[in-house]
Specification:
It contains four helices and nine strands, in the order αββββαβαββαββ. By secondary structure, it is an alpha/beta fold. Strands 3-2-1-4-5-9-6 form a seven-stranded mixed beta sheet, with helices on both faces. The protein has a two-stranded parallel ribbon with strand order 7-8. The N and C termini lie far apart (about 50 Å).
């Protein structure tokens, strides 16, 4: 988890999760996750893959819902008000099939919200397939029958120099490096990286009532 992802969550995602909402987070960093701890009054479930032995294959705490594949969430249709993921989409081979499943378990009127990296280097877990801009997530969302409310790409990290460039960002909670070296780099305007990520909020339409 990195700082820009958390900052995007606080600005664009948290205000869209109503008090009492039932949330499913895919690929969480633990149970509770760093995002769940930001919103303790929500009903927050976590889901992740199981390995061949039927055990959770992620890092950290055990997930509450074990998924037999990236494209199977074993819950009924329309279970959740919000389905959320951060730094997961890039690791899903058939992301279009994955989006269909996220839409399935979201209730009509609910939201599918994703945060995914744009500027980060290759990092397999166990694969790394995608870097996407807003139009890509818009196309995937619309294919899954969702209506895009927001899709924004950029960085909210405080730049450490006058010449930041897209790259790997700082971990969430990390302090900016200090000391003489950074002071000199700032003084001369040495380029330093900030993370660029994509946040997308898509709404599952409410089906019109029969005439």
């Amino acid at each position: 988890m990195h700082l820009n992802s958390l900052l995007l969550f606080r600005r664009f995602v948290a205000p869209r999760i109503s008090p009492g909402a039932r949330v499913l987070e895919l690929g969480a960093d633990g149970d509770p996750s760093i995002f769940c701890r930001e919103m303790p009054d929500r009903v927050w479930d976590t889901a992740d893959l199981v390995d061949e032995a039927g055990e959770w294959s992620g890092d950290g705490s055990r997930a509450r819902i074990l998924m037999p594949s990236p494209y199977e969430i074993p819950v009924p249709d329309g279970t959740y008000d919000v389905v959320f993921s951060a730094q997961v989409a890039e690791h899903v081979r058939e992301i279009w099939t994955w989006m269909d499943e996220l839409a399935r378990v979201t209730r009509p009127g609910g939201k599918v919200i994703t945060i995914s990296p744009v500027s980060w280097e290759y990092h397999e877990a166990p694969v790394d397939c995608w870097r996407m801009y807003p139009e890509a997530m818009r196309a995937l969302s619309e294919r899954a029958g969702l209506e895009v409310e927001l899709s924004w790409c950029g960085s909210l990290e405080p730049p450490r120099t006058r010449r930041p460039f897209p790259g790997n960002g700082a971990p969430a909670g990390a302090r900016s490096p200090g000391g003489l070296r950074l002071a000199v780099m700032r003084l001369i305007g040495w380029p330093l990286p900030v993370a660029h990520d994509l946040v997308t909020v898509a709404v599952k339409p409410v089906a019109p009532r029969p005439a």
